[in-house]
């Protein structure tokens, strides 16, 4: 089993073009080179609430274990954003088309990853969000 | 000026393999289609296990930015705690941990520039972190 992630950045903001290619990075369990072996698969929700909704429920037993989270705002409207928080701490806003890929420490059961369609209204339409979790915590689903 | 980011994910954990590619997504200023226009790129070597502010809110003049962080270590046991909040003289008490960035791992996320991005090495034996901020 192998799971790999690659990020490619290109920019001409500076005078000389900037190009970053991480290559395909294998996703390992915490502190060793054993591959992550569990996933939620790819999911999709349509957000229509300005209040926080739990996307991933933290399991404190995952605290010392590795987990990687992928979230993308699939809206075509660049003004529509999804606010992503962990334990009420805002990480950032995913505007239409934006994605994030982060490690996730389930430091305690309050460390849920939550999303809110903060500027949604009945006239904006739903905000589609796709997501996936790759992890090693065998108890994860018992807490979901 | 144009800046794009693309993520590719492949996994055969499930019997039917998973392949996700975002395509090259343009990075815009908050809420519009104006390209980001500022780039900061830093490589830093840390020699203690104290928590420090890696990216401060004062270093960015917008309320929306994109952050790339990579752990350059080649020792699988070495990791960084990545947190968000105010480091406060090495005390982690008022920060929320996002995750642990193990050797070779990278992370990419939008940042609302309300609180500093902080980092804590797992060992004091010269760990190198690389980061970029687009805003």
Protein described:
The complex is a heterodimer of chains A (144) and B (135). Chain A is mostly beta strands and 144 residues long. Chain A has a single domain (38-143), classed as Sandwich (Jelly Rolls). Chain A is built from no helices and 12 strands. Chain A has strands at residues 3-11, 18-21, 25-26, 38-39, 43-47, 53-56, 67-73, 81-86, 89-95, 99-103, 113-116, 127-135. Chain A is globular and about 45 Å long. The two termini of chain A are 24 Å apart. The mean pLDDT of chain A is 93. Helices cover 0% and strands 51% of the residues of chain B. Chain B has 2 domains: 1-36, no CATH class; 38-134, Jelly Rolls. Chain B has no helices and 11 strands. In chain B, the strands form 3 sheets. Chain B has a 4-stranded antiparallel β-sheet, with no helix packed on it. In chain B, a hairpin with a 6-residue loop joins strand 1 and strand 2. With 135 residues, chain B is mostly beta strands. Chain B has strands spanning 3-11, 18-21, 25-26, 39-46, 52-55, 65-71, 79-85, 95-102, 106-111, 116-121, 127-134. At the A-B interface, strand 1, strand 3, strand 4, strand 7 and strand 8 of A face strand 1, strand 3, strand 6, strand 7 and strand 8 of B.
Low-pLDDT sequence parts of chain B:
none
Amount of helix of chain A:
under 10%
Looking at CATH, the homologous superfamily of the largest domain in chain B is Jelly Rolls
- If you average the pLDDT of chain A, what whole number results? 93
Q: In the CATH scheme, what's the topology name of the largest domain in chain B?
A: Jelly Rolls
CATH topology of chain A: Jelly Rolls
How would the global form of chain B be characterised? globular
- CATH class (first level) name of the largest domain in chain B: Mainly Beta
**SSE pattern of chain A, N- to C-terminal:** EEEEEEEEEEEE
Number of domains of chain A: 1
Span of the ends, CA to CA of chain A: 24 Å
Distance between the termini of chain B: 12 Å
Helix count of chain A equals 0
């Amino acid at each position: 089993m192998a799971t790999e992630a690659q990020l490619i950045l290109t920019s001409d903001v500076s005078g000389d073009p900037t190009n970053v290619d991480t290559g395909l990075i294998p996703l390992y369990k915490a502190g060793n080179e054993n591959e992550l072996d569990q996933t939620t698969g790819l999911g999709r929700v349509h957000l229509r609430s300005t209040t926080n909704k739990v996307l991933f429920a933290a399991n404190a037993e995952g605290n010392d274990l590795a987990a990687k989270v992928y979230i993308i705002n699939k809206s075509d409207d660049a003004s529509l954003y999804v606010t992503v928080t962990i334990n009420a701490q805002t990480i950032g806003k995913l505007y239409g088309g934006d994605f994030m890929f982060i490690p996730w420490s389930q430091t305690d059961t309050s460390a849920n990853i939550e999303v809110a369609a903060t500027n949604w209204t009945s006239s904006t339409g739903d905000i589609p969000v796709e997501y996936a979790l790759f992890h090693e915590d065998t108890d994860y689903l018992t807490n979901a | 000026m144009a800046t794009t980011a693309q993520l590719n994910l492949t996994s055969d954990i499930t019997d039917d393999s998973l392949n996700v590619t975002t395509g090259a997504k343009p990075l815009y200023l908050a809420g519009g289609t104006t390209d980001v226009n500022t780039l900061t790129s830093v490589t830093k070597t840390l020699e203690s296990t104290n928590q420090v502010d890696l990216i401060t809110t004062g270093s960015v003049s917008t309320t929306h930015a994109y952050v790339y962080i990579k752990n350059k270590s080649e020792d699988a046991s070495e990791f960084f705690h990545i947190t968000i909040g105010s480091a406060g003289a090495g005390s982690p008490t008022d920060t929320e941990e996002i995750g642990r960035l193990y050797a070779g791992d990278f992370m990419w996320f939008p940042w609302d520039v309300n609180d500093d991005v902080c980092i804590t090495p797992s060992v004091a034996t010269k760990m190198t972190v690389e980061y970029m901020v687009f805003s």
